[in-house]
Amino acid sequence: MSAAAGTDCFAVGDHLMPLDEALALLAGRLAPVVTPEPVPLRAATGRVLAQDVAALCAHPAEDRSAMDGYAARHADLSADAPVTLPVAARVAAGHPLAAPVPPGAVVRIFTGGVVPGDLDTVVMQEDCTGHPDGRVTLPAGVPAGRHVRAAGGDFRAGDPILPAGRRLRAPDIALAASAGHATLPVFQRVRVGVFSTGDEVREPGEPLGAGGVYDGNRHGIMAALETLGAAVTDLGRVPDDPSVLRTALDAAADGHHLLVTSGGVSVGGEDHVRDVVADLGALHFWRLAIKPGKPAALGHVGDAAFVGLPGNPVSAMVTLLLIARPVLQRLSGETVTPPRRYPLPAGFHHRESGGRRTFLRAWVEDTLDGPVVRLFRSQDSAMVSSLGAAGGLVDLPAEAGTIAPGDPVAYLPFHEVLA
């Protein structure tokens, strides 16, 4: 893989690390671990482009009509009075005219039709008057080149159209197809194994039993990683047994670029993942200056990178979006850009953040005075319902004081980090 596995690239000091510092460390220490492959357009959506892509043809390839109407030579039109000219032919899209247009004549043309020869102007049919004898009257004062889409006006052969590192969306596929590409060079998907630990964890659909908890973390993590373009393997649940954990992790490392778990990496008596990962490779704690989600474990098991997320559901999801997401992006070759925050007025009171950058579950509500950000009723990191109720996160800097209604805050919608 990259420098990640074999050289302890995740190793850092033990200070409380600001999020921006953590992201800068990831940027400097991670590189793609996957190789390029050509895939057909139909399979390219959600994949990361491995090379810059240039157009194979011009678009449009010839001058095309932008309207239904009549194509004429501008020199045959008048700035002062309507002119009546013969209609020599009919041109529909996909049926270019083979013969030249006689001097002083026009052609009936439809949207997308190739503008013939030295004709250079299209007049909308609504502005023209047809006559029974086959002639048409065109209005005065039509500008030269009106309603003509010039050849290469969108792009020309050889023009760059898509940059390497882009995770391809439907509009990108449309652009590539319009530029003549049947296949695209993309990186293979990063293979990510996801597992959960804990004797109390139950699979949804099973009887819960006394002391049990359904495994929302693993399913949420897998869903997020798949949304972000990973090829995810469900490694299921592993009991709090060091020997079983060791066997499962050792086996998973061979077939994956990245392993992700939640919980089990703290210092509790049943947190065995920490020791097993350290024994099989390396494990480093990043004490992040964020709330929720201060602890994040990064390291490697064999040649697979390892990310250990907190066990509380909200902390796990927030840390996944803030830390595991850029890890995955860099391993996959995707260009990483900061997700956009939107400045909006607060619709809540909030006391000081206590010296840590704080992410509050929130949503945007339309009011008579415009949109405002509302907070979920409880910010307890175990409140799973808040993940469904929230539309995003309020991102408060560590130095933020008390927030009052109307104060501007930075709102990070989930669609900026899960799309």
From TrEMBL:
On the tree of life, the source organism's domain of life is Bacteria
Which GO-annotated molecular functions does the record name?
A: metal ion binding; molybdopterin molybdotransferase activity
Pfam families for this protein: MoCF_biosynth, MoeA_C, MoeA_N
**Which UniProt keywords are given for this protein, alphabetically ordered?**
Magnesium, Metal-binding, Molybdenum, Molybdenum cofactor biosynthesis, Transferase
| Entry similarity comment | Belongs to the MoeA family.
The protein's name is: Molybdopterin molybdenumtransferase
Question: Its Enzyme Commission number?
Answer: 2.10.1.1
Origin organism is Roseospira visakhapatnamensis
Top EC group:
transferase
Names of required cofactors: Mg(2+)
This molecule's function is given as: Catalyzes the insertion of molybdate into adenylated molybdopterin with the concomitant release of AMP.
Q: Which SUPFAM superfamilies match?
A: MoeA C-terminal domain-like (SSF63867), MoeA N-terminal region -like (SSF63882), Molybdenum cofactor biosynthesis proteins (SSF53218)
Q: What is the lineage of its organism?
A: Bacteria, Pseudomonadati, Pseudomonadota, Alphaproteobacteria, Rhodospirillales
- Gene Ontology cellular-component terms listed: cytosol
